[in-house]
Protein: DUF2867 domain-containing protein
Organism: Massilia violaceinigra
Amino acid sequence: MPNEFTLATAVALPAHSSVNNAFASVNLADAFAIRLPSGASNDPDVLARFIFAHQPAWIGHLLRVRDMIVVGLGLKTAAQLAKIASETEPSRVGIFKVYSTNATEIVVGEDDKHLNFRISILCAGGSAPDNRRDLTMTTVVHCHNLLGRTYLRVIAPFHRAVVKASLRSAARVGWPEAGAHQ
């Protein structure tokens, strides 16, 4: 049964997120938030790595199906990005390139011939009176062409399910504690 620490809910895009200005125009923009328990890390890099490392198994299966479909279209596959991450760009977060990071937010994503996307992991809150802290995962996508718009139309429902399930899974495993390094 979901509780306040495992319930990922749709929220407005955070006004102070740097992804709000990532692209001149966007074809998809959404954000989901989950409450962080007391003692959990505030480090967006640590939290992002944790989220992508603790996704449900079905997401990996879904990515493999996606890879089989898009490889024929000349799009980057998750397998190709994982190879890049392990061999040439170890600073990536999961399979994603890091675009920016600061004390409260990390922005990752990828550019491809059909679309560009950015994902923000933003930690906010922690001030009086209730000391509530939230982690918000925001995604913005800019499509370059018909292939991008068609692709996005097909994957958008899966995207939302993946984001919510990823946040819930990380919460169920147990967020890394403050001061933890991944």
User: Anything to note?
Assistant: The CA atoms of residues 71 and 77 lie 7 Å apart. The domain at 9-172 is CATH 3.30.530 (Alpha-D-Glucose-1,6-Bisphosphate; Chain A, domain 4). Strands lie at 9-11, 28-36, 97-101, 105-111, 115-125, 133-143. The chain has one domain: 9-172.
